[in-house]
Amino acid sequence: MGIPPTPPDIGESFLTPSGLDRYLEIQHILSKGLDDREYHHWDQLRLRTPPEGLNLKEWCHFLKAGRKQNAIRIPLLDCEGDAFWFSIPETIHKALHEIDLGGGGRVEFPEPITNPDTRDRYVINSLMEEAITSSQLEGAATTREVAKEMIRQGRKPRDKSEQMILNNYETMREIQKLRTKPLTPDLVFKLHRLVTQRTLDTPDTAGRIRNPGEDVQVANGEGQIYHIPPPPESLEERLRSMCDFANGQTPASFIHPALRAIILHFWLAYDQPFVNGNGRTARALFYWCMLRNDYWLFEFVSISSVIKASPAKYERSFLYTETDENDLTYFLLDEIRVIRNAMNNLVAYLERKVDETRKVESHLKALRLMNHRQAALLKHALTHPGQRYTITGHRQSHNVAYQTARTDLLDLTKQHLLQQFKVGKAWVFYPETNLNERLLALEHPGQINIDV
Description:
The structure is a single chain. Helices cover 55% and strands 6% of the residues. It has 19 helices and 7 strands.
């Protein structure tokens, strides 16, 4: 993907006598208004047909004039000292309303994430998904299955990719505790240390801004430079300014909390204050801001999985902003697309899991004899007959004490639903090969014979 072309500037052409006449003609044409709902960048606009009476450059010029008329400026400055700004087209207003309804929990969601007994399992699954895909965006090369097994079993990472994923997972859990704290440079440094520990070629760069001489660039795979961030000498002041913005101290005008979270994501990604790990830290700050503003659903939502599915759109939104006079609206629109898709993915996932649960429970009423953690393990085992389970993994999946997890598994072993083996110093549990029949036998004692 190349750098998109900069929109043309034809403002001076209207300063001549003939230009003024043309300007008055255009004002007559514009008396009916211009449709800007799709908010196209010049890169897209130049391939479309302009409204009758306008050429492409005139169309672009007056669309931009309308956007700037109600622009909201923020304290983020580019490397030349010009402010970033955004407008709020109709599509953003509608999307923010949907995020408010869904992310703040004012619509109905499936019972598993509102039930205190089962919500922890869904939180853990969502944190793992975000940790894995956020790391994969930064180059981690580990499958989802292997990564989840590592987290559940509590084993040590075997390579840098697994360490990145474990770092992201632990950072996401820590953000849940930090959500009530204001953002400070020290808190940003803490998040950076969490996401980068034991993954950096130069460990001393963790938790500190870049020093003079530690310049970074954002480039594509072919070496084309997309972005040169501000120099290290300016980063300390810029970081303080970012924290003031994150805490709502600037600007004086109201900015919707979801937009503030998205801009915070962009801000750190633009400044690239660290030698490495900027992308993961930026996404962590987005989650901190959303949870701080009571969008509790974002404990379950994975934005990185959506970004990973269409990384070119994500990258292009940065480039559109930088090549069109710091118009952040392009990034806001794409991030809102990501958020809405992530929320829809969560709802679809929950509906699918609820449906699976109902199908299992409809013919295996014996699961009602178990607690919700044991039932969840058995439902998983029915479709994953070769899966192994450990006390540590069960504890991690349900966020319970070790003794509680141990009791759960030993009880299932006593009921001859799991087999227990010693592997090294740890106990490992496997589903019985005829698990389905054994559960049916529990439901109808004495009526069904089990072949041992």
